[in-house]
Structure formats: structure tokens, C-alpha cells
Fold this sequence. Notes:
The protein is elongated. The protein is built from 15 helices and 16 strands. The strands form four sheets. It has a nine-stranded mixed sheet. It has a three-stranded antiparallel sheet with strand order 5-4-15, with no helix packed on it. Helix 7 (329-342) runs parallel beside helix 9 (373-384) and helix 9 runs antiparallel to helix 10. It folds into three domains: 6-292, no CATH class; 304-414, no CATH class; 422-480, Arc Repressor Mutant, subunit A (Orthogonal Bundle), CATH 1.10.10. It has helices spanning 56-68, 168-185, 225-244, 290-297, 304-315, 319-325, 329-342, 345-354, 373-384, 390-403, 407-414, 422-435, 437-444, 450-461, 468-480, and strands at residues 6-17, 72-73, 76-77, 80-83, 93-96, 103-112, 115-128, 132-138, 141-148, 155-161, 197-207, 217-222, 252-257, 262-268, 278-279, 286-287.
Amino acid sequence: MMVMGYEPVIGLEVHAQLLTESKIFCSCSTQFGQPPNSQTCPVCLGMPGVLPVVNKRVVEYAIKTALATNCTIQRFNQFARKNYFYPDLPKGYQISQFELPIATGGFIEIDTESGTRKIGITRIHMEEDAGKLLHEINGGAAENSFVDYNRTGIPLLEIVSEPDIHTPEEAGEYLKALRAILQYLGVCDGNMEQGSFRCDANVSLRPSGERRFGTKVELKNMNSFRHVVRALTYEITRQRELLEYGDSVIQETRLWDENAGQTLPMRGKEESHDYRYFPDPDLVPLYIEDAWIEALRSQLPELPRQRRNRFIDQYGLPLYDADILVTSRQLADYFETAVRSCNQPKTVSNWILSEVLRFLTDPRDIVSFPVTPEHLAQMICLIHNGTISGKIAKKIFEEMRTTGALPSSIVERHGLVQVSDSSKLEKVIQEILDAHPSLVADFRAGKEKVFGFLVGQIMKATKGKANPRMVNDILREKLAG
């Protein structure tokens, strides 16, 4: 992407909260939404004399994420202390990884207008989260501030991309792909509104053809894919205007203000040496054996991109359908369970995309949807074998959604079996034609559009139960005669 003589360069830093039951260095609960400061202990509050102990599940989740993103696992890695002072950091330092992270050198593939691109991953490292400041606003200003330490010590993975992204849209696609991988692995729920999947972006501009990077600005406070795209678009425009007027871009951290639609200065950007990193003396280095890595590799699920490509190859689905169906692992499982029962993949996909997803705000909620994949498949089989029509099927689907009843029992209870008796249909069709002689004449004079009206009258006369294909065939035959 060239912006009037400049090329944007974007790198993303993602913090993903891990779905462990306890924190990274203590046994406190990680459950979201509990009363402030109710899930803390001397360890996560950094009291004198306490000793942290690494949560093994955190390391396992980090290894799985590294494998799924094509990274190299660093067999020897180490925790470090990142020193800074802020009210939400009770210890005065954050336990993270610096020189020896758990994984390096991976990539994620994304789809762009120009084709598939690989976005490099510089590193993945484990760290603990900080607390959360809560501000009491009065008259537009913060009157009081409170701190909730429940989040302190919740395990994070920081996933740092290479500066391989050149448009806001590519940044959005990268984040969607990364979040889907984490959700498929079951290591992070990806909830951006609750802060369990957070993104900071580094963006700079350089003259077209230049290889050296420009001065970068860090963007924070973006809690949706849409916000990321909008914030990057605004910041690229802001930096371009500065450069065109001969001004310099200042290296700083800026916040995205969604209501104002602009980025605002927050603070000057610290360099890594400002944090005075040094190995944590309370935590021994980790050595990860090959056997452990291979055991975790064997547990990896089929990942979104691979599953999408298989859906296209195995089921003959178009790319559009497959992309939506693999949005979540639960939705993809629902689709495949239904297909195994009725062997009608495109019809199953059509029903999911047009009907099922209308009632879901999150595709992962499919697990509690009243219409099970087996029920959907049974209904599709009834359509396929001519027992019911597509129009009747929509009524059945709605009743399944509200009652959870079997489609076959709904058909039997309401007498919804499709009329496929040709003699009965011929009689009804002839009655409709006899009642509308002028329309018959119009059709034979070349007015094709009256055909749809006649079909509608026939379906109305049969209360929607007539076999549509047979109605069309018989009606055309009679009109031709």
C-alpha cells in the first residue's frame, strides 16, 4: 500500500489471556467478573518473602501456540523482571520474558487482494498481566481512581509480529487469523471487549522504495478489529500530513479515541533498556524436552485455514461458505456433524449461513443452539426425499428452534407432508387455470411473468404442501397444451 509516496509499515503486539483456571505463578482463580480484589494472594500481590511457581498449563499453551504458528520452540528459556512503576502493578515489576523467550521465528498466512501473504512472527513469550485501574468520572473528569488487582498475575502470551503488514486491512486479517488459531487451540477465548485479546500496533511511514524504517508510533486502546483498522487508517493519514508539511513524526505512544475518531498522545515511548530487564532470581530457567513438544504436537486440532481448504476440497464448498463455517471450531464441528447425517454439504451450508447464524451473535454459541446438527440433517433429508418442501421446512425449522422438537414429529403432528401425488396436483392446477383464463392467454401470448403468479395460487390452494418441482412441470405442460 502506497500513501501518496509513502509506504506504511505496521507491526502488531498481541496480548492473549490464557484459559487457565489459576494464575501463572499462584493458585488464585482467573474467573472474570468477580468482586474487585477478591482473587488475590501474597504471591500475585508481590508481598515480601513469597516465591512464584510456574503454572505448567501456561507453558503447554505457549508451546501449542508456537507450534500452530510455525514458530521454533526455544528449548532453553527464561523469565525476566520488567521494571516499571504504575498503580496497577503492585510489585513494581512484571514477570515476563526478554532475551530468552519460549518461541521465535514463525508466521501466519492471511488472504489479501493480491493473494496469500505470510506475516512473520518475531517472538512469543509468557508473562503475567497487570491489574486494572477504575476511574470514577464526575463532570467529564476523573474524580477518584481505584485499582482492582484480580487481573494481576493472569497468564498472558505476548505475540509480536514482524513489520510485514502494510495496510490497516491486512492488520485486521492478521488479527482475525491469529484469534481463530488461539480459539481453535482452546488457549484463549479471544474476547476483545473483556480484554482477553488485546492489540497494540506500531506504525511508521517511509518513502516509497526506502528500506530504512521511519519513526514509529505505538497505538493502544483498540478493543475490536474495526477499531484497529480505523485507528491505523487515521494514524497513517496523520503521519503522512506531518511528513508532507516537513514536520517530524515523534516517537510516542498514542491512544485511540473511538468517539472522536482520532489518536491522542499518551506518553513518550520507552525503549527496552528503560525497563532494566534482568533474569528473575526466584524462577529457574525452563528446559523443554523434545518428548514434551511432540506430545503436545499430537494434541493439536486441525487449524482454521487447513480446515477451510479441506471443506472446499472434500465437500465442494465455495470459498465464501468455507470461510464462514470455520469462523469457530464449534461451528465447523456443527456443519460436519450435520453432513455426516445427511450427506448434503451445500444444503447444510446454505441453512447454516441463511438461517442458523441469524440467531447467533457469536458462532461459538452454536453448542447451545436448540436445533442440533442431527435435527437439521433430518429436516434436510425430508426435503431431499420429497416429504416436505423448502417452504414448509422453514416453518419446521422455526418450531425446532423454539421447541427443540424432532422435525419428523413436527411434520406428523401438523400434517405437513408434501403433496407429490400427480393426479391430485393436476386437479388443483386445472382448477386454478380454469379460474384464470385471461392469465393463461397472457402466458401463451409471451407474458412469462404470470407463471409465478399461477404457481403462487397453486401453493396457496395446497397450503404450501405441493411439491414445487412437480407443480412447475405439470403447470408448464398444461400451459403449453
